[in-house]
Design brief:
The chain is an alpha+beta fold. The chain has nine helices and 15 strands. An eight-stranded mixed β-sheet has the order 7-6-5-8-3-2-9-10. A five-stranded mixed β-sheet has the order 11-12-15-13-14, sandwiched between helices. A hairpin with a 6-residue loop joins strand 5 and strand 6. The protein is globular, with a radius of gyration of 20 Å. The relative contact order is 0.13. The protein binds adenosine-5'-diphosphate and magnesium ion (MG). The site of adenosine-5'-diphosphate has 24 residues, from helix 2, strand 4 and helix 4.
């Protein structure tokens, strides 16, 4: 059940701005779908996400009351107290994303939990709920974010070309697909399919779906537990790239961007790769704090 966090909890965890560009929306919505226990997440975008980002999942959905509360700032079902952070098993916990997104766009959400025969449709424009009505729909949640920053022209001006915004969304879907093999991901534009990544029994298959056969055949499986647990795949030295884009590093399945960790991986390849060439990795570092 979703509830508004108490003030002293908010003060300790609030992050502030979460929506800078279409990919921030895609990231937050994907994380919510993962947290909802989905095994299928479909994402559709138009014009690099500027015109439309739609995400559809088969997760546990929301009741009517929760569907309305979800868009209030600092409302979350994932924690109640700061202590809950110690045993956090979800990607989200601040209860800020849906509120922030709905303030700067036109949102339509259709959702149904498995416990209810009928779903809820809710429309929010610029942070104002304009419609709540019952609707027949399948189990799970579909959130459509239209006209991002329609009411914040200054933000709109700073967005990159559609192609660039789309590439950022592609990367984020690839990132999550690689670390959640038990979830099928699809990314489509209105014109074509960009990612089709079914559920993978063998996590290596996720690399195959994203990067193709040639890469998937040239991987080294990593599984070590001393001094810390690290699991995943590294490319063999015959595979290399001009950029660091294919260094996928996660801490407890949470995507992180750390130059230090990237450099550590690159250093391991020091004499194996030509100068200015980078490997591919999908590495999950397990945090020992939990
Ligand atoms: P947070 O993820 O930090 O809790 P959000 O603003 O992203 O905050 O979402 C608010 C709440 O809405 C979540 O805690 C969750 O209960 C609910 N929610 C959001 N997206 C989904 C979804 N796809 N399926 C089910 N519940 C969802
Ligand atoms: Mg969230």
């Amino acid at each position: 059940m979703i509830a508004k966090l108490e003030k002293h909890v908010i003060e300790q965890i609030a992050a502030g701005e979460v929506v800078q560009r279409p990919v921030s929306v895609a990231k937050e919505l994907i994380e919510n779908s993962i947290d909802a226990g989905s095994t299928r997440i479909d994402i559709k975008i138009k014009n690099g996400g500027k015109q439309l980002i739609e995400i559809s999942d088969n997760g546990y959905g929301m009741s009517k009351d929760d569907a309305i509360l979800a868009f209030e700032r600092h409302s979350t079902s994932k924690i109640r107290t700061v202590d809950d952070l110690d045993r956090l098993s979800t990607l989200g916990f601040r209860g800020e994303a849906l509120a922030s997104i709905s303030v700067v766009s036109k949102v339509l959400m259709v959702t149904r939990p498995p416990t209810s025969e009928i779903g809820t449709k809710i429309v929010i424009e610029g942070g104002e709920v304009t419609k709540v009505e019952p609707v027949g729909c399948s189990e799970g949640t579909t959130i459509t974010v239209n006209a991002l920053f329609y009411n914040v022209p200054a933000r709109r001006k700073f967005l990159k070309k559609n192609q660039r915004e789309q590439a950022l969304i592609y990367d984020i879907v690839a990132h999550y697909s690689l670390i959640f093999p038990q979830i099928a991901f699809q990314l489509n534009t209105d014109k074509r399919n960009l990612i089709k990544s079914p559920i993978a029994i063998d996590p290596r298959d996720k690399i195959l779906y994203i990067y193709g056969n040639e890469i998937a055949r040239n991987l080294i499986h990593i599984n070590c537990s001393n001094p810390i647990k690290v699991e995943g795949y590294l490319s063999k030295p015959q595979i290399s790239y001009r950029s660091r884009d294919r260094l996928h590093i996660y801490v407890s399945s949470r995507l992180i961007k750390s130059k230090l960790l990237e450099d550590t991986v690159i250093t391991a390849y020091q004499h194996l790769l030509p100068k200015d060439r980078y490997p591919l990795c999908v590495l999950n570092i397990y945090s020992t704090f939990y």
